[in-house]
Amino acid sequence: MHKKVLFTFLCSLLSAGISAQNDIRTGLSWFGENATHPGFTLNLEYVRNHTAAISTPMRADVGAYFHPRNHNAFLFDLHCGLRERFGRRFALEQYLGLGFLLAFYNGDGLFQVDDKGVVQRVSPTGNPAFMPSVTLGIWIAAGKKSDPDRWAVHLRPKAFWQLPVNNLAMPHFALQAGVTYRIKTLPKRK
């Protein structure tokens, strides 16, 4: 099963898509880090429709989340995915992403101990972090009967890693729930 999905995904990315119709979509999502630390993302998505059932969305997200009494984080990530439709309105999707995370720590000071055992105050800006991610999702076309794909809603559980954190990768989980709107349909290729 996994080999079939990976093969379909790779073929979709590499295929010429002679009669593919492509969409440009924009969106807004609630982004809950650990599902309890609220935030948001703004999305811009390019969707390449290979068949009526298979498409490969590429998405850029810019956003932030707020972890009270700990830190606030800003993020930017790019995703490449596979969306498989089941019927006219329902689809399952999966994404791999790479991004950037910048945390700003709350409190009256941030301190670290150097190699000589001396405690020093440091900047509250956390180290910029690399942010790989894996996202699964449910996508539902929510437009009118004549154009169901104009609007869509999505629910996307996401796992991402912040690295380096103390020379390790710190795992995070998030839940994205939001809407997208098709702003343009590009003509079919000849």
Q: What does it look like?
A:
The structure is a single chain. Helices cover 7% and strands 65% of the residues. The protein is mostly beta strands. It is elongated, with a radius of gyration of 20 Å. β10 (151-165) and β11 (168-186) form a beta hairpin. The protein has one helix at residues 2-14; strands spanning 21-33, 39-49, 54-67, 71-86, 90-105, 110-113, 119-122, 129-130, 133-141, 151-165, 168-186. The protein contains one helix and eleven strands; from the N terminus they run αβββββββββββ.
Extended strand count? 11
Oligomeric state of the chains in view: single chain
For the largest sheet, list the strands in their spatial order. Answer: 1-2-3-4-5-9-10-11
Helix content: under 10%
The pLDDT mean sits at: 86
Beta-strand fraction estimate = over 45%
C-alpha-based Rg, rounded: 20 Å
Count of helical regions: 1
Distance between the termini: 33 Å
Based on helices, strands and strand pairing, what is the structural class?
mainly beta
Question: Which ranges are low-confidence, i.e. pLDDT below 50, for 5 or more consecutive residues?
Answer: 9-19
- Shape, principal axes of CA atoms: elongated
Largest sheet: 8 strands, antiparallel, barrel
**Helix/strand order:** HEEEEEEEEEEE
